[in-house]
Design a protein that fits this description.
The protein is elongated. The chain is 33% helix and 19% strand. The chain has two domains: 117 residues, no CATH class; 107 residues, no CATH class. A seven-stranded mixed sheet has the order 8-7-11-10-6-12-9. It is an alpha/beta fold and 316 residues long. Strand 7 and strand 8 form a beta hairpin. Helix 2 runs antiparallel to helix 4. The protein contains nine helices and twelve strands.
Length: 316
């Protein structure tokens, strides 16, 4: 019996150590912490916890635990609503501000939270239970939370395939017989130096945009904007379709620029820009150098990584 207890205890210690070691890897993204939960702005997952106690009227241990889980789930989903209310939509509006203006939005958000996924159940030694619930800030919930008044662009236009027309048949006009010429040795033409120098260089293909905003006190939002130093918008809702913004999110956030480079959102060859300033009441909008802004405008004429929301922002 002592050997079994020792082995069981050792196994529990190993499990706890493995979980602790895996935790930094799981949370490498940018996580915004609230009083009752957190938002992972890299994955878009919003989580919250709730604790429930078993009622004194329970007839047995199984019923007590089931009722404690139910109570903890209710508390966790209520806390999840509070976390979502604190999410910044743009530089001036939070989810709570937006919900106050529309009762329909309130009921739809609550409907999503009632169906939020139970991610973990922890049983405490005193009989209480801690439940963790989560919901994605993208997809259906984003469709509810992004106001219809936000000016989004149109869907990305795909090139249409042209239908070949019927060939035209022309009758050649009669010509006079050609005068025979004496064959000459063909001359090899060398390219002129001027022509070789004026040939355009092939444009580098970028797979996304990373904006380094560390050291500026910037904060995350569902609909951030990027400006140049003259106040002209370089990236924002007007540059993407609403469909992409809902499914992908306008931007992903991270703390580590090297890990952000390997994120599927922007890998394998992202364009990297340094933010020089933050804008907006909530400090969610960024300003980049004019020269860099002009490079992005030039790239966007032939490349669509901005239209597809392939943007990562690095925060402290």
């Amino acid at each position: 019996m002592k050997i079994k207890c020792f082995l069981l205890g050792s196994l529990m210690v190993l499990v706890m150590l493995s979980v602790a070691m895996a935790q930094p890897t799981m949370n490498y993204g940018y996580v915004q912490t609230f009083e009752n939960g957190q938002v992972n702005w890299t994955t878009g997952l919003v989580t919250a916890k709730g604790i429930g106690a078993p009622p004194a009227t329970a007839v047995n241990m199984a019923q007590a635990r089931a009722m404690a889980v139910r109570a903890a789930t209710v508390v966790a989903r209520r806390n999840l609503l509070e976390v979502i209310k604190g999410v910044q939509i743009d530089s001036t509006t939070t989810v709570q501000n937006y919900m106050v203006t529309n009762d329909i939005i309130v009921s739809r958000v609550q409907g999503f939270l009632q169906n939020s996924q139970v991610l973990d159940i922890a049983y405490m030694s005193d009989g209480s239970v801690e439940v963790t619930v989560g919901v994605s800030l993208r997809g259906g919930l984003a469709d509810v939370l992004l106001p219809k008044t936000i000016p989004f662009g149109t869907k990305i236009q795909r090139p249409t395939r042209l239908t070949p027309s019927a060939p035209q048949v022309s009758v050649p006009a009669p010509t006079a017989p050609a005068t025979p010429t004496v064959p000459t040795t063909p001359e090899v033409q060398k390219p002129r130096m001027e022509e070789a120098q004026t040939q355009p260089k092939p444009q580098i293909v970028y797979t996304g945009l990373i904006v380094d905003a560390r050291g500026l006190g910037a904060r995350p939002a569902m609909s951030p904007k990027i400006y140049d130093e003259n106040g002209q918008e370089v990236y924002g809702s007007a540059f993407v379709s609403r469909e992409y913004a809902i499914q992908q999110g306008m931007a992903g956030y991270a703390k580590d620029i090297n890990k952000a480079k390997t994120n599927p959102r922007v890998a394998n060859n992202p364009f990297i820009a340094k933010a020089v300033q933050v804008k907006g009441k909530a400090r969610t909008d960024l300003v980049i150098n004019n020269d860099v802004a002009n490079q992005l405008r030039s790239l966007s004429k032939n490349q669509n990584f901005l239209e597809k929301c392939k943007v990562m922002i690095i925060l402290d």
